[in-house]
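Hey, resending since the last one bounced:
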Amino acid sequence: MIRTVMPPLTLTKKRFTLAIVGLVAFFVFIALFGESTTVTYDRDLAAKEIASASASSSMEYATGTASSTGDTISPMTTATGSIPTLSAQSITSNGTSTPKAHPPVVHQKTPAVVRAAYMTSCIASGAGLRAPMLKLLDTTSLNAIVIDVKDYTGYISIDFNNPEFPIGGKSCLVKDMHEFLAELGAKGIYRIARIAVMQDPHYADAHPDQAVKRKDNGGIWRDKKGLAFVDPSSKDFWKYIRDVATAAYAAGFDEVNFDYVRFPTDGDLSNMSFAHNASTTKAMVMKDFFAYIGGAMKEKHIPSSVDIFGMVTTAKDDLGIGQYLENIMPYFDYVAPMVYPSHYPPGFNGWKDPNMYPGPLTEFVMGEAVKRAKAQGYGPEKFRTWIQDFNYGKIYTVTDVRAEIENSAKVGVTSYMAWDPSNRYTSAAYVQSANPVSVANQ
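The structure tokens again:
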């Protein structure tokens, strides 16, 4: 290796002058571009951190061991059409504030068969970060995307210019969300806003009177990850969730998806106290919430879906978390069981390791869901299967992911949403030629 040696530096007047000029230029550069450079780095870092943590905290998982003891937005007037929207204030040349116009909102009709993938708000927050997901949508049979609007931190990923909706914090803000949604719409992609509901540390800390409390000292109860929940029967919180959902639809999402619609499942469950629902059961509390939020969405003509534990489809009770299938189906357009084989307990349906049978397990679980739906007058189109496309307990291959999709379709459930917290999907599993239904938006 050749090592280059620099001559000794002597500080002449000319070099001193050049040094000063260079230093000034450096600080001018930082003043002009430093903030945007820092934001890009932080977003990239946050995306990696969120991806690594999401397997345990970003999405509901079916554990099978749940304990038995756990209006500021105007309503939309039309379900479709061009609706002008406004952003936060922008500064004009004379120093005054004027609203910045966003692209007009044009809502899309729900495809007869939805084939979606999930995207975190951090991945959505920058053009470079989300480029791989856009490529996935462009080159496969996927026709929809699920994006975090309110994640497990409680923070909102869009600046709705409303002080009631917290932005930033531990989550990622998508500053160009309106434009991004318009771009997706131009591609014919159906846009679904994901809202994590009851797990909301920010709201619980800001409104401790509405939080799940500790029996021993009256403080805010937290799960094993240190995250707080809102008391599921807090009516004020119901209204807050309604307003977030309405704002998301007004921003350009075509549908609102509700996640974490349950009582807590881990941590010291025996030390939980619920001041707002002491006189009724968890199943009835959640049924009342489902009726309220589902009814509000129907009144505003907003398509809605709800995520539930996969084991709800086979359980005869509410699993101790308030999720009972017959109490859920009447209030939402679509019900999405989270059928992740890796999260079913050993011995489920006779399988020593259910994770080794992604196809048969998905067919059995969704088949049971369809049977119960038909008994209530609903068809298999009521459901969308959340499928596993992440490695947990084993490497999930193209064959595994395809087996989940195809075996779900065997019982009539052709719509699905794919989950990978790192947003690195098995693209070959969604190739157009392999899809069991037409790839066009139907």
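The chain has a mean pLDDT of 81.

Sorry for the duplicate.
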